[in-house]
Amino acid sequence: MITSSEYKKRLSKMRRNIYIDGKLVDREFKRLEGAVNVLAKTYDMITDPEFKDYQDVLTATSHLTGEKINRFNHIHRSIEDLLTKQKMTRLTSQQVGGCIARCMGIDSTNALSVITYQTDQKYGTEYHKRFEKWLKDFQSNDRTSCCAQTDVKGNRPWRPHEQKDPDLYLRIVEKKSDGIVVRGAKVHNSYAPVVEQINVIPTRALTKEEGDWAVAFTIPADAEGVKQIVSAPMVEYPEGWGAPGPWGGADSLTIFDDVFIPWDHVFLCGETDMGGRLALTFALYHRHSYTGCKPAMTDVLTGATALMAEVNGIEKEHHVNEKLAELICTSELVYGTGIAAAINGYKSPSGTYVPDIMYCNVSRRHAGVNIYHEYDILADIAGGMPATLPRPGDWVNEETKPFIEKYMARNPNVDVKDVLRAFAWVQGLSCSENAGVMQYAGVHGGGSPRMEQIAIMGSYNVENTKNIAKRLAGIKTDKPYTFDRLGNTPKL
Ligand SMILES: Cc1cc2nc3c(=O)[nH]c(=O)nc-3n(C[C@H](O)[C@H](O)[C@H](O)COP(=O)(O)OP(=O)(O)OC[C@H]3O[C@@H](n4cnc5c(N)ncnc54)[C@H](O)[C@@H]3O)c2cc1C
Q1: Could you tell me which CATH class the domain 280-456 is placed in?
Q2: How far apart are CA 312 and CA 124, in angstroms?
Q3: 43, 57, 169, 217, 479 from 115: Cα distances, Å
Q4: Is the C-beta atom of 99 inside 6 A of ligand 1?
Q5: Can you give the residue ranges of every domain in the chain?
Q6: Would you say 107 and 286 are in contact if contact means Cβ atoms under 8 Å apart?
Q7: Whose CA is nearest to atom 9 of ligand 1?
Q8: Whose CA is nearest to atom 32 of ligand 1?
Q9: Residues 115-132: pLDDT tens digits?
Q10: How many CB atoms lie within 10 A of CB 177?
Q11: Percentages helix, strand, coil for the chain, rounded to the nearest 5?
Q12: How many angstroms separate the alpha carbon of residue 487 from the centre of ligand 1?
C-alpha cells in the first residue's frame, strides 16, 4: 500500500485536463486542496497509530492476490465484508466531517464484479476476466477511483435514443479491432479530479434499440480526450487555527470527446439488459454506502449542535436534549437499517456479496428526507452567528481584536478563542459553499428520492398488506395469508 505523499506525487504527474472557472489547472490547484486532503486521509489512517485497532476495518485481503489492500478497493466476499464496509465508511467519514470520497470507487467496482460475471454467463463474453485483470493491477498499485454514472440526460422525459442530440447520454460512436470510441458527458462526478481512474457505467435501464448507450469501462482520469470541468467549493480556514484539513469536495462535468478505450478496459458493450442491471446494482451498493456516511454526517451535526449548545451556555435546556435525541434517532435508524441490509445480503453468482434492496433504499431515503431538518436543528441551537461571523482577519487585527474578544464572549467556561473556533467551524459545516453542496448531495447523491421510491415500491408487496387489512376488517378475500417482509426481499 502507498502513503498519502505518494498519492499526491502521482496526482502531480497527471496530464492537465482540469478546468476551473475558465482556467486550465493542475491537480495541485488551491481549490482542489480540500478534496485531495480527504483522499489523503484514507491513506494516512492505515498507518496512523491512532487507528491501529481499526486495521481490520480499514484493510482487507484481496480475493484475487491474497495481498493486504485498502478496504476501499476490496470486493465484498461475505456478509462480514458488507458490514465492515459500512463501518469503515462511518469511521472514515467522521474523520473528515463529511463525504469520504472513495465509496463511488468501491461501489462501482463491486457492481462491475457482479454484472460482468452475469453478462458473461448470458452472452458468452469475457468481461469478467478483463475486469479482474484490471482490478488486480488497481488493487496492487493501491489506486483510487470514482464513478461516472450520471449522464447529462438532456430533456428528462426523453429516453437516450429519443434525445435530439444522441450525445446527451454517453455512447459508443465507433467499434474498432483494438477497442471502442465513446462520446458524451457525465456530470456530478465526485472527486473525479483527484483520483487516478474513472469507472464509467450506464445511468438507467435501456431499451433494445439503445445498444450504443449500454457501455461500461474504466479509464485514467487524465486520458487523452477526457476533459474535466470542475466545481470545487473553496474551504477557508483562519491562519494558524490548528484545525485538521481543510476538507472539501470537487465534482466534475466530465467530457468524453471521442475517447478511445482499449478492449481490455471495456466491461460492457451493447448488452442493453445488463446495462440497466449495472446501473441498478451500482445504485444499490451506493445507497448502502450512504448507510455509513450519512450516520457519520449526522454524528458530526449532532456534535456541532451539542457544541453550539455549550458555547451558548444552553446545554441543560430541555429543547436541546429533544433535538439531540432527534438527530441520534436519524443516524442510528439509518445505520441500523444498513446493518440489516448487510445481514440480509446474498452471494451473487460471481461470489460477490450484494446488500438487501429494501433495507438499503428505505435507509437512504430516510437519510435524504431528513437532511435539511438536521441542518435546521443545528441552525436553531447555534443562533445566527455562523451566518454573520466576523472574518478571521478581524480576530487578529490589533484594532478589532479586543472588541471581538470582548463581545464574542458567551459561556464563561468556554475560552473566547474556542467560541470563535466553534463558530468558524460550524459556519463551514452549515453556512458555506461546501455546506450547500453537502445538502444537495444528501438529497440526490446515490439517486433522487423518486428513484428510491421506485426501488422500494418495486420490492414491496403492497397487495399482501392489503390482504392483511381485508382479513382484519372482515372483508372476504380469496388470497391466502402470506408471511411477508420478514427478510425475503427480492434479489436484483
Ligand atoms: C453532490 C452530488 C454528488 C454526486 N456524485 C455523483 C457521482 O460521484 N457520480 C455520479 O455518477 N453521480 C453523482 N451524483 C448524481 C446523482 O446521482 C444525481 O444528482 C441524481 O441521480 C439526480 O440526477 P440529476 O441531478 O440529473 O437530477 P434530475 O434527474 O434532473 O432530477 C430532477 C427532478 O426530475 C425528476 N425526473 C428526472 N427524470 C425524470 C423523468 N424521466 N420523469 C419524471 N421525472 C423525472 C427527478 O425525480 C427529480 O425530481 C451526485 C449528485 C450530487 C448532487
Answers
A1: mainly alpha
A2: 66
A3: 29, 26, 20, 12, 36
A4: no
A5: 280-456
A6: yes
A7: 189
A8: 448
A9: 999 999 999 999 999 999
A10: 5
A11: 55, 15, 30
A12: 29
